[in-house]
Amino acid sequence: MTTTILSSIPERLSRLRLAMQAHGVTACFIPSADPHLSEYLPARWQGRRWLSGFTGSVGNLIVTADFAGLWVDSRYWEQAAVELAGSGIAMMKTNSAGSVAHLDWLAESLPAGSTLAVDGAVLALESSRALRDALAASGVTLRTDLDLLDDIWADRAGLPGAAIYEHLAPYASVSRADKLALVRAAMRKVSADWHVLSTLDDIAWLFNLRGSDVNYNPVFLAHALVGDASATLFVAPGSVDAALAERLAADGVQVADYAAAADALIALPAGGRLLLDPRRVTLGLIEAVPGQVESIEAINPSTLAKSQKNAAEAAHIRVAMEQDGAALCEFFSWLEQAQADGQRITELDIDEQITAARARQPGFKCPSFATIAGFNANGAMPHYHATPESHAVIEGQGLLLIDSGGQYLCGTTDITRVVPVGEPSAEQKRDFTLVLKGMIQLTQAQYPSGTRSPMLDALARAPIWEAGVDYGHGTGHGVGYFLNVHEGPQSIAILRSPDEHTAMLAGMVTSNEPGLYRPGKWGVRIENLLLNVPAASSEFGEFLKFETLTLCPIDTRCVDLALLREDERAWLNDYHAEVRRRLAPRVQGEALAWLNRRTEAV
Ligand code: ZN
Ligand code: ZN
């Protein structure tokens, strides 16, 4: 079996090279991307994976006549080394997510007069400019009108087109008509007649619709064109039933074929002004816009609006957190009991049990991402995934890291906890406590409204840096409301440039997840979701603080109390009192006993 899979990669590459030759192309660049610039790609757009055999979610493949290389960041170095072995594809290391090392390689390695092909349909408008700039100086021509995969990928999947459904009141607390009015008001501000959207979470939010075309994110494949008085949703044929089409029509929303989006742009009247977000639409789609239509570039109004949850949404999210916390009590009490009984438990069992516990809660739809359950050395890989072929048995002594989340009609959750297996060592307790201190320090911050979110990252890191250690990922990401578990525009990430769209505003939900990883030994990460709430106002302006949304005990067996300040210990005890108060009415029996045990004051 293995040999068939391995030999097929060189075969696919040679077919690609033949297609390149036929089109007069020197090099081909295949990013991990789709026409909606999504994090999770439908099978149809997993061409980079199909061509390279690399199963990680992020990687840039470049193929020339005599070279093939896959650029991956440090999260994937180990995995790529294994998966690329024997494929003829070299692993090219980049330092961090978003690195442009592959652009530099292209600019340096392609001779003047050569042609680089990349499918413009999956390339963000902004990225296409960076690519053009990188190539311009070296005299390389960029071709974006070719989808070479189509020539060579015989069993390529078609478009997904699962049924689209409404996100209804009370969970959807703002009507579709009101959301459209809000977007049109933003369009008027910049004198735009039209607005085009391709990002699936923006579209799902704006139209109060959800779907299941993408793993873990309750979204559906679509583009949308909003005018002054009209709006058109371009969706897979058959995905909207007659009753829903009628309800959409009542709000002035027409349904059209997914493939007709480009034609609708081509037909835009001359002299019109089109609002678009260069980070959230592709070059391929925007190339359809006629020259006589003026583009106005700005962030999607819906991206900013959906990031700021209103009071009704925040109330629903608090319920989602109680449900999720109750599910976690059931899960963790099962885990402790199973270990006490000497049951053989693997990392895969964790995923199964945690998902089953969530599925018993009302309104649960699916996990919000693939559960990360990593024991000891596996926990030291922040994006580790256990597989049937490779996973650890949880036995002996050490730390078990579990990062998981759920999609509920009333909200999206994302939580990381670390629990001890056997008695944790002094070093393990020290690492856990440092991470806890960082988590608490960020939680307790008060900051001016509008503070650029990347700046806050240092607060979580300070106690960790003080010990001469660090972690290689951002501290926090925005979280959607029954939408994507990763959403912008805010991001508490040290490497993110603090541009104007990263401003912290009331109602935003952001994760707080510092970590500490000892390669080959163990990993620690503690993650709560936080809501931005008003704190105070003074002659210096409005200030915000965080309300902790996530409700689940933080295992005090891993805490070195000598390292905690008095106020940190008080925070931990207050948090546990709140967790117990909110979750106790939702659990019984063993789960309740576990909750009481794990929320005892220290
Ligand atoms: Zn997480
Ligand atoms: Zn997270």
Give an overview of the whole structure.
It is a single chain. The protein has 602 residues and is α+β, with helices and mostly antiparallel strands. It folds into three domains: 9-152, Creatinase/prolidase N-terminal domain (Creatine Amidinohydrolase, Chain A, domain 1); 165-306, Creatine Amidinohydrolase, Chain A, domain 1, CATH 3.40.350.10; 308-598, Creatinase/methionine aminopeptidase superfamily (Creatine Amidinohydrolase, Alpha-Beta Complex). A six-stranded mixed β-sheet has the order 4-3-2-1-5-6, sandwiched between helices. Strands 12-11-10-8-13-14 form a six-stranded mixed β-sheet. A four-stranded antiparallel β-sheet has the order 21-28-27-24. Strand 3, helix 3 and strand 4 form a beta-alpha-beta unit. The longest helix has 30 residues, at 311-340. It is globular, with a radius of gyration of 25 Å. 47% of the residues are buried. Mean pLDDT is 95; it is low at 1-6. The structure holds zinc ion (2 copies). One zinc ion is lined by residues 414, 477, 511, 513, 527.
Tell me the radius of gyration: 25 Å
Q: Provide the CATH topology of the largest domain.
A: Creatine Amidinohydrolase
Count all strands and give the number.
Answer: 28
Number of domains: 3
Which architecture of the largest domain per CATH?
Answer: Alpha-Beta Complex
Percent helix range: 25-40%
How big a fraction of the residues is strand? 15-25%
* Protein structure class: alpha+beta
Mean pLDDT: 95
